[in-house]
Amino acid sequence: MGAGEHKKEHFLCLNPFGQVPAFEDGDLKLFESRAITNYIAYDYADKGTQLTCKDTKKMAIILVWMEVEAQQYDPVASKLVWELGVKPLVGMDTDTAIVEENEPKQLRFLMSMRTD
Predict the structure, then answer these.
(1) Backbone angles phi, psi at 2, to 5 degrees
(2) CA spacing 20 to 30 A to 93: which of 54, 85, 86, 108?
(3) Measuring CA to CA, which residue among 41, 33, 35, 40 is closest to residue 59?
(4) Quick one: average pLDDT of 109-114?
């Protein structure tokens, strides 16, 4: 990504937003990680670990938690990873206001996952 390959025409044919990931399987081109993983789970279901189920109620619960990850966990976790992980790694200053805003959100989310 440092060389900007993801912004060049050959990659933009796979992901029009010029972002990673992009996936190609024959004539199918997909982008967005959740779409890619769903495609793999269904299309390759008989070729390895079963990631889907035929029981619609169980599958609905799986889909709920996939949405929770996408809507609740990922937005906050991404901000924290950027501020606390990536920025220091590349010599940028961490925005402490963003960290202070998002750490409590992440803690609330993680505490809601406790089962004990």
Answers:
(1) -60, -30
(2) 108
(3) 41
(4) 85
Tell the residue number behind the tokens 């390895």, with chain if given.
48
Whole-model pTM above 0.90?
no
Looking at residue 17, what DSSP letter applies?
Answer: T
Contact present, 18 and 12 (Cβ < 8 Å): yes
Q: Which residues contact 12 (CB under 8 A, 6 or more apart)?
A: 18
37-43: average pLDDT: 91
DSSP string, 35-83: HHHHHHHHHTGGGSS----S-HHHHHHHHHHHHHIIIIIHHHHHHHHII
DSSP secondary-structure letter at 29?
E
Q: What band does 49 get if pLDDT is binned at 50, 70 and 90? A: confident
Confidence band for 11, pLDDT divided at 50, 70 and 90: confident
Structure tokens at 40: 């793999």
